[in-house]
Amino acid sequence: MTESQISINSLLAPESVAFIGASNDPTKWGCIILKNMLHGGYAGPIYPVNPKEKEVLGLKAYASVAALPETPEMAVIVIPPPAVPAAVEDCVKKGVRAGLVITAGFAEVGPEGKKLQTAMVANAKKGGMILIGPNCNGISRPSANFFPQMPSIFPGSGPLAAVAQSGNVAASLIRRGIKKGFGFSAVFSIGNEADLHCEDFLKFLGDDPETKVIVGYMEGFKDGRRFFNVAREVTVKKPIVMVKAGSTGAGAKAAMSHTASLSGEDATFDGLCKQSGIIRTDSIDDMFGIGTGFLNQPLPKGNKVGIVTMGGGWGVLAADTSANFGLDVVTLSSRTIARLDEILPSWWNRGNPVDMVAGTVGGVVPESVRILMEAPETDCVILLGVLGLMKKRPGPSDGKPDLVEKQIREALQDLSDAFDWLKSLSHQYQKPLVIASEIPFTLGDFENRMVQMLGQKQIACYNSPNMAARVMSRLVAYGRYRRHYSKMKPTEGGKNGIQGA
Amino acid sequence: MTESQISINSLLAPESVAFIGASNDPTKWGCIILKNMLHGGYAGPIYPVNPKEKEVLGLKAYASVAALPETPEMAVIVIPPPAVPAAVEDCVKKGVRAGLVITAGFAEVGPEGKKLQTAMVANAKKGGMILIGPNCNGISRPSANFFPQMPSIFPGSGPLAAVAQSGNVAASLIRRGIKKGFGFSAVFSIGNEADLHCEDFLKFLGDDPETKVIVGYMEGFKDGRRFFNVAREVTVKKPIVMVKAGSTGAGAKAAMSHTASLSGEDATFDGLCKQSGIIRTDSIDDMFGIGTGFLNQPLPKGNKVGIVTMGGGWGVLAADTSANFGLDVVTLSSRTIARLDEILPSWWNRGNPVDMVAGTVGGVVPESVRILMEAPETDCVILLGVLGLMKKRPGPSDGKPDLVEKQIREALQDLSDAFDWLKSLSHQYQKPLVIASEIPFTLGDFENRMVQMLGQKQIACYNSPNMAARVMSRLVAYGRYRRHYSKMKPTEGGKNGIQGA
Lengths: 501, 501
Known about the structure:
The structure is a homodimer. Chain A has helices at about 5-10, 30-40, 85-95, 110-125, 165-180, 200-205, 225-235, 250-260, 265-275, 285-295, 310-325, 335-345, 365-375, 400-430, 445-455, 465-485; strands spanning about 15-20, 45-50, 55, 60, 75, 100, 130, 140, 155-165, 185-190, 215-220, 240-245, 280, 305-310, 330, 355, 380-385, 435, 460. Chain A is an alpha/beta fold. Chain A folds into three domains: about 1-135, 3-Layer(aba) Sandwich (Rossmann fold); about 135-295, Rossmann fold (3-Layer(aba) Sandwich); about 305-480, Rossmann fold (3-Layer(aba) Sandwich), CATH 3.40.50. In chain A, the strands form four sheets. In chain A, strands 8-10-9-11-12-13 form a six-stranded mixed β-sheet, sandwiched between helices. In chain A, helix 4 (about 110-125) links the parallel strand 6 and strand 7 (about 130). The longest helix of chain A has 29 residues, at about 400-430. Chain A starts with a helix and ends in a 14-residue tail after the last helix. In chain A, about 55% of the residues are buried. At the A-B interface, helix 5, helix 8 and helix 11 of A face helix 5, helix 8 and helix 11 of B.
């Protein structure tokens, strides 16, 4: 690990933690965040610091950082702004390596806060202590059961990482992850970026073996040039999907009062994203949807898409969206048509999208996907509707709980096998497969269990044909960037305004 | 009721029904659709017609339409294409007023099918019988418990109506309705529109007292001029939110093979939408989201939006999206700022969005919404986050089922009161209020019950700030159209290429 890797690791998975501002008052963040850490199951010692309490939430409390029995590796800081610079000084004296400053009321509120923020950072730098925040709502490292964070939500461990300048956007991402069964390697709410910047976390995540895809929400950059240099290093290893907010006058004003961020020219940012391989989007849902859609996908070698659909309207919507986002809904070759003719009913549409026509059952749907995967004219495949993947559909259960449970389990196993097969197909042909479907039937809590099952397999299944096509278009764009980059000489990047890494 | 009203009423809520092609084979549509009708609880007599069966699903079966003991008001037709023209002739001879032709394999498959379709319509016209379809998946009229449809999904009764040229898009809309607790007045899957066209259903729904908002999915129009004339009549009474698919070359090709629709020039359609007040969108989710967002909303008198947010990032995203879609994120007057100063903590951002800052509780959030509603500088208000509306938040329940249930009920009542109050506020000031929020906490099956509660109140609550702003922008555009139209002389429309209604 590099030095910065080691440092950020002290934030994410420390040996021990001081909690400065721990409280027994359940309405205070000093209580809620500590509770979240305890609930999360962090294994190391936590030392509450509060001069007025003997115990906080059952843990022995200490009057000061100086009084702690050992040097904690990191500190969570939740005290009012004026007291923070001194607390950081205390941490430095004790030898604390890293601090998470939750407290708000710094640069984002005006010159007074700005002064406190500057003093806080100066004190940290004296001792080589790194800081995340202030004005943030915390971090999560599920693999270390470490959740020093404001929201009481606990995602599982997984390959998605998030960096957000907004705490409530970070929380929105976590909520989507929990709902869809996707886990996180790390979530950083980075607030005002007084010390560590967005790019420090990107750099860490680029090298973090737990992380496969990075999603990010930013309103502005402290050091745009460094950010883009780091992004460029990272995107040749793993994708970064990013919302850059504050892109309009109204949004920029709101961003200024939110995280004291100067949003900058939107067109410039857009251009720099294209040059650095960042996948830009404009909403939390797209960021999460595209991010999860990139997990475990081979990158397409071109923009030619084949579509298999269980319903005509969905097919038309996917074709429109594909075309609008630069994909080529490729004309199928006579050889591919002939192969489909062998398995599809006589009246099939002989076009792309391949319309399965209502009621098509049996192995026809998976076989059609295989034929489009094998077809030399496609670079990638979209599948709309998963009902046709099932070998057997649940019969009537008359609401009998035992039978319902049995049917749900059989259906989940059936779908699980089908998705595993599709994933292996996708890797065999090195073409990405993006899937959208309605939940195929209503049966007890089947929907939730199906969604969780897919999330745990790191498979995104969208509920809209438009979204499937949009995600595919981003896979194509990222694949193009990666091919282009691999051909470039190391110095060539400079010509486009970005220095070589 | 006009004559066409009476006729379409025969399709939606007939006194009695013949089911031509009824079957006991559970894999056949003639069985599945009949089962759906029985499950739906239709009260009138159903006469299965099948020369080979004595009984179908427990109902006495008849060898032919001629053999039925009375004249059924409508007929559901599920037999193979070559037999359909004769069946329609039989219906006409018996005096049947309306037919629903589910069967596919007509104009959409080629010249042979086209011939059958022409013969079928000619036979119907001889007796003044109207037809919906062919190549459709049915209709629903929940208020009449009438569900002659392919999918086994049963929405409640409500104010949303849907007209779709695609059966699976109609089903997607129904699924979204069930999931979100919104009911439908009617759902028409209109297929090839051999006899009745999209505009016939629009006209009916325009006069239908059960219907408040119409959503539609179309790939092409049989008679574009008539469609726009009807749309223009309807949109001065109620909004039409529409997806026009086949807008790209790839989509148009797919539409041709799907419903034999000529998609036409997309830019022309776009212009005609603007002139006829149709709210155009491009996805099923937006169609449903915008459609439900229009229910029970006063129309804004201008584009000036005030935003109250529980989180900074959500506020910035809403401000960006508002600005991108033509809303003015208005600068708050000094009087409004002063009023907010009285209730908000000293460090509040004094801008729009009004940022509640993490942890704001009590009556501050609803009071801030009221202040923005009262402010003369706003035309409409967006609220992001509903947790702050609650008088009391659920405490720890330790998973005890009785306590969890009690807490869920209290929380639902608390939120229900808050939403009722917000609705009355919106009507008092005649300014629309659009709300987006995460589900505020995790507690048993609270999420689903909260969503259903809101749907039953006909309140849309989005999970994305971008969507809230997009919906508001459509309310503003529709409000502008309605104001503009009300000022126009009846003949003026002709200048824009559309004849006066």
